[in-house]
Design goal:
The structure is a homodimer. Chain A has helices at about 15-25, 70-80, 100-105, 105-115, 140-155, 220-225, 245-250; strands at about 1-5, 30-35, 55, 65, 90-95, 120-125, 165-170, 180, 190-200, 205-215, 230-235. By secondary structure, chain A is α/β, with parallel strands linked by helices.
């Protein structure tokens, strides 16, 4: 098995090292990740400029490829032939959860989408470390082990084509995790607010501020599963059609 | 009615001017768009740095706001209170169609998504001008008129919350267009290929090359509608859950 490991936080982020080490227990691993942080970058494919690829070393001394492209580029280049045939693409471990509408912004998730568009299974892994005290360094160890269990299942199982897995892991020890549960996308509640400030030269500038987003704690959703201490596995699709709205809209009288 | 007009090609792109002029026939218009091209930028929200907002003039002498943020930021800032209450957000007119999986990459579409997440109807408009000869300047006139008809319907109608409209317009005169039809997201076929080259200093670099993407011509889809000369209106949702895959995955034996 050949597993491609990428992320959107950059090749030197601690989460990707933990993920790569866990995946090495399942097969041959190639790490190919952006040379910088692309968090909240969305789904980007670089067509207007060429990309550079360099070799670099991770903190455990192993080799990784890095590119000046976006997370999706770091999936596209290997799958287009830069490396040998890939059986699975995993992305992460993102330091924060990607739940609810987050999935439409997340570079971690779009890297997995890019794999699935190319016909290779893709899994995005995110750790809800926003739930830990800020003064404690993030421990990716338990999350990496949970990620290994999920990836192993996907390699053994028969995941349908076109399914992206979005996995969120609670910030708990492996023993404290309640298990792995399959969920639907929950509701995220954003609490953004416009924060107008004035710079030292008297000119205004704006932060998208406000409180951190929360989620609606509902059973069966990614939000609810995380809050209950479960590893949440949400299957995502790339067909964004709102089928329920189709018939309503078809009943409208449209005239050019 | 107060309509916010934005795009992902930058405030000085011809498509946004045509769209703003058409929307002025329906109500009060505020143009708020990025100061540069963000095509294929995906869904981005800028949280790590503050944003600047400037006034600028469009080619018809009207005022517009521009920001150094992404398309979604140019929706978030006005909706968070930079301008008065907004009734509708329209994005475009993108010079190329956004069909099939394109919607997961498209900045034009994500601007409309950002509006819907904030509870305001959002419509993305794209023109299939890739179908015209490259040596003819793009005429956004007929597309702008078609966009006006669609926007008018949405303002009159009762579009459900959570529905993003993705509208693709064929590159035809208004008379030649076959009508407006409601569609589902079709299948895009990407023909990307890795194009390795060597720079003048002997170092490799990579283009994501290959042929232009094509689509599967299927009735009832955005791809099929465009090819048949129709304006395609596809309702999109922000719940990406792959519901068909849920039960299959739930039947797997998951162990932490």
């Amino acid at each position: 098995m050949h597993i491609l490991v990428t992320n959107d936080d950059g090749v030197q982020a601690p989460g990707i090292l933990a993920l790569a080490q866990a995946m090495r227990q399942l097969g041959q691993v190639t790490v190919f990740a952006p040379d910088r942080n692309w968090s909240a970058s969305g789904h980007v494919k670089t067509l207007e400029r060429p990309l550079r690829v360099h070799e670099t070393l991770l903190a455990d001394g192993t080799t990784a490829f890095t590119s000046d492209g976006a997370p999706s580029d770091c999936v596209a280049l290997p799958l287009l032939g830069f490396v040998d045939k890939v059986d699975l693409v995993v992305s992460g471990i993102n330091p924060y959860s990607n739940i609810g509408y987050d999935v439409t912004y997340s570079g971690t998730v779009t890297a997995a989408m890019e794999a699935v568009i190319a016909g290779v299974p893709g899994i995005a892994f995110s750790l809800a470390s926003q739930d830990k005290p800020a003064n404690i360094p993030t421990d990716y160890g338990p999350a990496a082990q949970a990620a290994r269990r999920v990836a192993q299942k996907v390699l053994e199982g028969d995941l349908s084509e076109g399914v992206v897995l979005n996995v969120n892991i609670p910030y708990l020890s492996l023993e404290a995790m309640q298990g792995i549960t399959v969920t639907r996308q929950g509701l995220r509640v954003y609490r953004d607010a416009l924060d107008r400030r004035v710079d030292p030269r008297g000119r205004p500038y704006y932060w998208i501020g406000g409180e951190a987003p929360t989620g609606v704690d509902e059973e069966g959703t990614d939000v609810g599963a995380l809050l209950a201490g479960y590893v949440s596995v949400t299957p995502l699709q790339l067909d964004l059609t709102h089928y329920k709205a189709l018939d309503v809209l078809k009943s409208w009288e449209w005239k050019i």
